[in-house]
Specification:
There is one protein chain. The protein is an alpha/beta fold. The protein has one domain: Rossmann fold (3-Layer(aba) Sandwich). Helix content is 44%, strand content 15%. It is built from 11 helices and 13 strands. The protein has an 8-stranded mixed β-sheet with strand order 11-7-6-4-1-2-3-13, with helices on both faces. The chain has a 3-stranded mixed β-sheet with strand order 5-9-12. Strand 6, helix 5 and strand 7 form a beta-alpha-beta unit. Helix 1 packs across helix 7, helix 3 packs parallel to helix 4 and helix 8 crosses helix 9. The longest helix is centred in the middle third of the chain and has 29 residues. The radius of gyration is 19 Å and the shape is globular. The two termini are 21 Å apart. The N terminus and C terminus are likely disordered. GO terms for molecular function: oxidoreductase activity. Belongs to the short-chain dehydrogenases/reductases (SDR) family. Keywords: Oxidoreductase.
Amino acid sequence: MAPTDAPDRPVALVTGASRGLGFLIARELADRGHDLVVCARDADGLQPARADLEARGARVVTVGADVGRPEAAHELVATAEREFGRLDVLVANAGIIQVGPQPDLRDEDYVQAMDVMFWGLARPALEALPLLARTRGRILAITSIGGKLPAPHLLPYTAAKHAAVGFAEGLRVEAGRQGVSVTVAVPGLMRTGSSRNALVTGKAQAERSWFTLGASLPLVSTDAEHAARRLVRATLRGTPEIILTPLAHIGSRVHALAPSTTLRLITAVERLLPGPAGAAGPPRPAYTAPLPRWLRRLTGLDKAAAERWHEHTDPSPDPGGHPGGGVGPERTGTPRR
């Protein structure tokens, strides 16, 4: 049953909201008058983001959860209903990225990528549909250009994002019968600072170097604040799909028309990347592999984004496990008026 003091303000649930794009989307929704349930695997990592969101006038409930688990996804949506009595927007943004050549990856890397980026989208979305149907709500499914065409040295990520694109597009087709709109977001590279929290394997320093450089170049990547504004605007309008960055637009269109050509080009690019180290091992956070001094000078935009969008205050958890498997809300934020 909805609480008797349920607010008239709309409510958004954002997964992967402790840092980077998820935090910026939550902030944009707060600025548009939404109260928030924000989720990440580490509840402690949500606290700096929570403070920023509260300062913008939102009531915030924080939840530590591994949303790829059925019981966690169920309890997360139940928390939104219990705390606010409604749900208007679900943003499925939980993500992880492993960087390294295929011979240096393990089976566990693929399992973890699917748990976070496919099941971490599918399970909250399916759980939230009945609640969203009451408000004719919106789902924003954060996928990636990696779900439209392959990216070298990102094979688990690419596989999981392809699955996420397929699910989100299919859900868009069927959820409309319930009055729920699904927006499939296909971002290219964004300057969120998240490259420092990527999980690297193989020749770790070399892998981090190329990945961080790509995320820092203005002509290759886009400003994350601008991206968040566009994504929220498209979601509230009910736009079926939004592709961010010119290169992502071009890449997805060319691949759809001439897949053999793009596969040959991407294969050529892969030959320029570091070769395998020859021994698959547990990936480690990229920030443990220091960048060369000359490269640090070229990646100032990425470093500045990391400092602004909480990439330092919420480092990635140990990739060997699934921390935050339980859920436990913490009531915070400004009183309802």
